[in-house]
């Protein structure tokens, strides 16, 4: 019993003080103060000789309480450590969503925080199905592919195998839907029916985006690529006469035009190629890959994705649609 008492008091003196562990330590301190005050002696070389009988008697009486508090302290510490370990090992869904993704696919606050949009709604739903929190990573569009291939992220959406350099190194989900590409221009300008109608013009594009139908013309300087951070910025420059045309997709253009009025009339022409299929991409090395593939399949079969897209359809015409005659 003496050995146990000695070790309990030693344990108390070594325990890190937190809310629970403070109590037995404070009780021990009070015992020392009480005995010193009771005998009212001065120390000789730092020693209080008459204090020891008092300490022994008080510790005998308080030992059961101290033992219970010490056990509670150790249990609290073990529980906290277990909880921290479990939290550290719990799976987290890492999703890349670039701030340059056009609305309504991604909606960011002025401070750069992801606040909503199709991407967030869709990935939040995937997280709920798998009971996992989602960590959103704002990665520049040009780096999204690298982050997924290197398993720095688990999933990225609204991509296409045609828009990345190594599509074989990713697992693709979809197609989720098709997105019509448009050439937006001022209504008083010549309609665009083919690539040559845009030669030597300044084209508004989104930084980091790939435009397969235009890339060769950009490289040969037949078109002038002029990047901006957002579709709205490009449309503003178009209305001001600083651009000749702007590349857009149907849902984004409709959303922006339903929220914003420009000082000049704008029209759009459909691109001369087939509307591209839109996918989500999953890292091949992600341990979550099987669960993510199953969850995306479930959402596709349930009709959730189409219902989600309907929520962001514009309530008014985006711009005047024109179908130019082929030359």
Topology, element by element:
Layout (H helix, E strand, L loop, with lengths): L1 H13 L7 H18 L11 H39 L3 E4 L10 E2 L5 E3 L1 H12 L4 E4 L6 H6 L5 E5 L10 E9 L2 E6 L15 E5 L8 H5 L4 E5 L2 H9 L5 E5 H10 L6 E5 L6 E7 L5 H14 L1 H8 L8 E2 L6
Parallel strand pairs: 1-4, 1-5, 8-9, 8-10, 11-13
Antiparallel strand pairs: 2-3, 5-12, 6-12, 7-10, 7-11
What does this structure look like?
The structure is a single chain. It is built from 10 helices and 13 strands. It has 327 residues and is an alpha/beta fold. The strands form 3 sheets. A 6-stranded mixed sheet has the order 9-8-10-7-11-13. The protein has a 5-stranded mixed sheet with strand order 4-1-5-12-6. Helix 2 (22-39) packs antiparallel against helix 3 (51-89). Mean pLDDT is 80; it is low at 1-28, 34-53, 65-74, 82-87 and 323-327.
In short:
With 327 residues, the chain is an alpha/beta fold. 41% of the residues lie in helices and 19% in strands. This is Transporter substrate-binding domain-containing protein.
So, the CATH homologous superfamily of the largest domain?
A: Periplasmic binding protein-like II
Write down the CATH topology of the largest domain: D-Maltodextrin-Binding Protein, domain 2
Mean pLDDT: 80
Described by strand count, sense and barrel closure, the largest sheet is: 6 strands, mixed
Level-2 CATH architecture of the largest domain? 3-Layer(aba) Sandwich
The helix/strand series, from N terminus to C terminus, equals: HHHEEEHEHEEEEHEHEHEEHHE
Protein name: Transporter substrate-binding domain-containing protein
Family: Belongs to the bacterial solute-binding protein 3 family.
Organism: Rheinheimera riviphila
């Amino acid at each position: 019993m003496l050995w146990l008492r000695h070790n309990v008091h030693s344990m108390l003196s070594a325990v890190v003080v937190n809310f629970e562990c403070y109590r037995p330590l404070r009780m021990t301190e009070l015992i020392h103060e009480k005995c010193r005050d009771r005998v009212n002696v001065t120390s000789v070389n730092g020693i209080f000789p008459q204090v020891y009988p008092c300490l022994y008697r008080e510790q005998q009486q308080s030992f059961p309480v101290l033992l219970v508090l010490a056990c509670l302290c150790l249990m609290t510490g073990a529980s906290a450590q277990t909880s921290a370990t479990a939290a550290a090992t719990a799976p987290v869904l890492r999703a890349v969503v670039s701030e340059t993704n056009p609305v309504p696919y991604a909606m960011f606050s002025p401070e750069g925080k992801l606040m909503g949009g199709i991407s967030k709604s869709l990935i939040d739903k995937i997280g709920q199905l798998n009971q996992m929190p989602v960590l959103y990573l704002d990665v520049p569009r040009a780096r999204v592919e690298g982050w997924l291939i290197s398993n720095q992220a688990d999933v990225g959406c609204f991509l296409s195998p045609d828009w990345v350099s190594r599509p074989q190194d990713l697992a693709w989900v979809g197609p989720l839907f098709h997105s019509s590409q448009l050439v937006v221009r001022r209504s008083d300008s010549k309609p665009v029916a083919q690539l040559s109608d845009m030669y030597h013009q300044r084209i508004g594009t989104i930084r980091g985006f790939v435009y397969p139908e235009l890339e060769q013309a950009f490289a040969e300087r037949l078109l002038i690529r002029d990047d901006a951070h957002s579709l709205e910025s490009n449309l503003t420059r178009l209305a001001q006469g600083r651009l000749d045309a702007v590349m857009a997709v149907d849902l984004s253009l409709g959303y922006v035009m339903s929220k914003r009025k420009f000082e000049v009339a704008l029209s759009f022409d459909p691109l001369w190629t087939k509307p591209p299929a839109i996918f989500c991409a999953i890292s091949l090395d992600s341990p979550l890959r099987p669960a993510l593939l199953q969850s995306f399949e479930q959402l596709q079969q349930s009709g959730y994705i189409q219902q989600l897209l309907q929520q962001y359809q514009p309530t008014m015409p985006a711009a005047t649609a024109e179908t130019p005659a082929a030359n």
